[in-house]
Specification:
Length: 71
Amino acid sequence: MEHEMKSIWYFVGLMLVAMGVVVFLSGIYYFFVPDRNSTVLGNLHPDIWWGAIIILAGALFFFTNKNRTRK
């Protein structure tokens, strides 16, 4: 029986989605509970934007390499 391995980009996509969710949820938390020490551009909520971008990039990696296997 031959084992087929998943591509490394499949697992990179999973990791990016997981990390993007953490960043996004922390951004949502700080949106409702503002930090006392705000930055100059903190009102733009970059953690929400970057979390969403990381999730999209991870989903792209995950779904484009979902069915690809290496021998």
